[in-house]
Every structure is written in C-alpha cells, then in structure tokens.
UniProtKB/TrEMBL annotation:
InterPro entries: Ferric-bd
Gene3D superfamilies xrefs: Periplasmic binding protein-like II
Domain of life the protein comes from: Bacteria
Annotated GO MF terms: metal ion binding
Keywords: Iron, Metal-binding, Signal
Signal peptide: 1-26
Short name of any one Pfam family annotated for the protein: SBP_bac_6
Protein name: Iron(III) transport system substrate-binding protein
Residues that coordinate or bind Fe cation: Y220, Y221
Length: 341
C-alpha cells in the first residue's frame, strides 16, 4: 500500500499534469520552490495580475533536485526557485535547468550574480554583515579583522558548517588562498566568546546579553528583528546592535542569493521566462525588499529603510560560481581547525 506522502505527491503531480495539459488554452506556470510561500506569493500574485498567467506552486523544504530528476521529461515544473547559490549551482550541474536568452535578465542581474551559461539568475541578495555592540567605536571593518587578537573572547558566530558561513569562508579562499584561510579560521575560532552555533539572531541576542561584542550574521535578520516580525523579544535584540557592512581588504561585502532557473523540461518555457523577467523589474524588486528585507539585485531598485540605514552596499565582485567552487574546501578547512568544537 502506498504511503500517505506518496499519495499526496501523486495527487500534486496529477494536478500539475492537468495544469500543463491546459496550458495551451490558458497560460499557466508551475513552480517548485524551497522558498516559503509567504515570501514569494505577493510577487506571484502581482505577476498574475499584470500578465494574466496563473502560477501554481509546490513548496518543498528539501529534495527539490531529487524530485525533478525522478520526474524526468514528464516533470510539470517550469521554474525551480531556491535559496543559496550552492543550491542553484547544484541544479545546473545535475542537468536540471536550461539556458535562458534574455536581454532583460542580463541587463538587470550583474554578471557575477548569474550563471555564465545563463542557467540560473539571482533575484535577491542578503549580505554577511557585522553585528556590533552599539557602544563600540566601529565604523568600518574587514572580514580579515575577525582574526585580530584584540577581539579575543568577543566574537559570536553560528556553526562554521552552516551554508551562510561556508559561503563566506569560500569567498575568503577566493581572495586570500587556502593556507591563509586556514590560519584565519583558526584565529577566529580563538577569538570566539562561545562555541560556534545557534542562529544569526542569537548573535544579536548574545551581544545584548554581554556575551560578545561583535559577530557575523545576515543582513535581513536585522529587518526581521527590528520590524517586530520576529516577535517582541527580538525587537530588543535588533535594537541592541549596530550594523557595519564589512568588506574584504581587496574586495566588497560578501553576499548570498536567492534565485531561480527554468527547468530543463519546462512545459511553459515562454511564460517561465516572462516571470523571471518580471521578478527583476522595479516593482518586483521592491516587493522582494519589503517581504523579507532582502537587497534587490537590480541597481537602483528601492531598499527597505531598515536595510538602507546600514549604508551603501558594495557587493564583492568575486563571481558566485567561483565561491561555489571553494565551498567544499571551505567546509574541510573549518573541520580541520575544529571551528565548531
């Protein structure tokens, strides 16, 4: 007997199959996404209102690539949407995407934030920033400075194996090489005020609690905390810190991205490309900024006031694909120095 989960997947597949079969009569799109529906639904609703194209979504926390691969040529998925550049690159490497020729996407998405073969495109960014105690006289900071002995016992950070940090460490490798990165990681570990772990918001919480003075965390969490979306308690965490946009000494601020790709066997490719182009429009980029306090990828698009208060973001120019290449080595180096021990 089939399990309930198997039956549910079969039912969803059947609904999408019907949607795909009806696409010749009524424009529709099918999205497989690891982004929670609450974050992207406002954008999809706006797209439907402006284009008349209905958008069906299936949210899956894990297993997106495996699902699409198992469906093969019969997959109803038109767009694959996910968070973290490693996940986007993984979809392309597994042959689950197809290149998109679009002057609109090329003009809106900087070259370092998209696949060189145009298999995927970043749609929003979150920066890896410095949370600092408000009383610190600190207006500028380099990632390299995290290893300075003056911060001994004063640094908080989540696990070195978390994708947010392996991406940062991989970018460090791209700038400084593996040997220097290993030494830096060992020195940062020596500066920790507590064991690496918890979440990014815990960095702000622990700064408020006096456990540490500085820490590395994602920019959008500050918006979630200060706006009250994370709950009343987290407002105090967000208000207890100031945010500095750190840079590499020879580069900019490290960012990670959310993005999307057109599925290899997309039944509705034309509509899929139209949606991707809409998602980099000024209106959609503004909605991205409002929904989850993310940075838009399109230059000049509006930024939420909380995030804008950090100052001008200078995105590190290292290509996302270069960072992906170093992530395995970054994880191995973090393990080698016992970063989480």
């Amino acid at each position: 007997m089939k399990s309930l989960s198997t039956l549910r997947l079969a039912l969803v597949g059947g609904v999408f199959a019907l949607a795909g079969g009806a696409s010749a009569m009524a424009a529709e799109l099918n999205i497989y996404t690891t982004r929670e529906s609450g974050l992207i639904q406002p954008l999809l609703d706006a797209f439907t209102a402006s284009s008349g194209v209905k958008v069906n979504t299936v949210f899956m926390k894990d297993g997106l690539a495996e699902r699409v691969a198992s469906e093969g040529e019969s997959s109803p998925a038109d767009i694959l949407m996910t968070v973290d550049v490693g996940n986007l690159a993984d979809l392309a490497e597994k042959g689950l995407t197809q290149p998109v020729v679009s002057d609109v996407l090329k003009a809106a998405v900087p070259e370092n934030l998209r696949d060189p073969a145009n298999n995927w495109f970043a749609l929003s960014m979150r920066a890896r920033v410095l949370y600092a105690a408000k009383d610190l006289d600190l207006a500028a900071f380099n990632y390299e400075d995290l290893s300075d002995p003056k911060w001994k016992g004063k640094v908080c950070i989540r696990s070195g194996q978390h994708p947010y940090n392996t991406a940062l460490f991989a970018d460090y490798i791209a700038h400084n090489g593996a040997e220097a990165t290993e030494a830096w990681l060992a020195a940062v570990k020596g500066n920790l005020a507590r064991k690496a772990g918890g979440g990014d918001r815990d960095v702000a919480k622990d700064i408020l609690g006096g456990i540490c003075q500085i820490g590395i965390a994602n920019s959008y969490y500050v918006g979630l905390m200060r706006s009250g979306k994370g709950g009343e308690e987290q407002v105090a965490w967000g208000d207890a810190i100031k945010v500095v946009l750190p840079t590499f000494k020879d580069g900019g601020t490290q960012v990670n991205v959310s993005g999307a790709a057109v599925a290899k066997h997309a039944p509705n490719k034309g509509e899929a490309v139209k949606l991707l182009e809409y998602l980099v429009s000024d209106d959609a980029q503004k909605l991205y900024a409002k929904a989850n306090f993310e940075y838009p990828v399109k230059a000049g698009a509006p930024i939420d006031p909380i995030i804008a208060s950090f100052g001008a973001l200078k995105v590190d120019p290292v290509p996302m694909t270069e960072i992906v290449k170093h992530r395995k080595q970054a994880s191995e180096l973090a393990e080698k120095v016992g970063f989480d021990n």
